[in-house]
Amino acid sequence: MTENPDTQSAGTAGEPEGPTHSDPAPAADPATPELRETDETDETPRRRRLAPGRRTAAVGAVALAAAIAGGGTGAIVATGLDSGGGTTVIRETVSDSEAGSAVPASSSGASVSDVYRAASPSVVQIEVTMQGEANPLGGGQTQQALGSGFVYDGSNHVVTNQHVVDSATSVRVTTSDGSTYDARVVGTDPSTDLAVLEVDAPAGALKPLDLGDSGSLAVGDQVVAIGSPFGLQTTLTSGVVSALDRRITAPDGFSIGDAIQTDAAINHGNSGGPLLNMSSQVVGVNSQIESDSGGNDGVGFAIPSNTVKSVVSSILENGSVEHAYLGVSLATISQEAAAQLDEPAGAAVAEVKSGTPAADAGLKAATGSQTVAGQPFPTGGDVITKADGKTIASSDDLQAAIEAKKPGDTITLTVSNGGQTRTVDVTLGNRPA
To answer: Which comes out higher in pLDDT, residue 149 or 27?
Structure first.
């Protein structure tokens, strides 16, 4: 998975939280402003970004806190890097010495085997070489890892996860017929965990897949995952869309919205492979699992194809992707909690980062906290209740409003503090790398 991740625990509204290194660290004090909304009131869910597949018994693991924001419960917990819990990110490695345009996501009545026959020739295995840690006796070790991807267009571009190719010194792809080609990284976006490769293959050798419209998916729709779990190339699993609009944590610690949850079995090595509808269209890119065991427990997550389309288009046009940035940490104040806190419901500003658009606009951070039903909530700061006139009922709502903007855009926030309401115009910045 992610090699030497320079990441943080997930933040909201364009601001990651927590330590910036991968070493385990104590969990944050739940009374501090570094708070996240979650559906879990007892413990932080254990979410694992899918690791490249196993090549030998030699496995390297890197721990990364990646708590997620749940939907609208108002419960908040502190998050931080913790060797005893939270999210872990695993990348399996082995040293040399040990070794298109979107179309509706409709069902066509096809069988799972029909989807496999149509799509599997366009799914590739990705082998990444990277420089490992220095050998105490001198010199360094080369490491390898495996992931998955799919052919995106007729120009030999392949889409995969950013964490699959992170720190790569060379990349090779293998198609379902065994053909192997060199590839180069065109660009990556750690904020959405997506990457684009250009494959040095003859014209016409690679067959692209169509992108489906992830916005037309419904819970219960049948889906198919194809990839290389544990290096077992073009493996198929199937299941259904278990939930929509989930938030997962990107390699850079920011959150990815509208993720697709599925019970189709996905494991280490499936990273970057397609999640397909029954019309053989890509509706997601498999990226993470939630698991206590580290293996498939029936809860997997894919980056939606509508996000893929936008991000990949930007990478192909500009070589990079820009995301709007506000510069705050937030916590949701639900209607139930609001009555006891004597605050309006909305997105409470727990922290304002210095030198950010939020600081320049004069947004005020919390000065204390109050516990309601066993959960700490920030108090004394601004509570954002509207964005561009639209009601903000949660930190997720504000995150979505920011994500819909571009750097340089202005967003108008309605803010409450101490019983007083004011309107603040904020010119959004560019999310830091």
So the answer is: 149
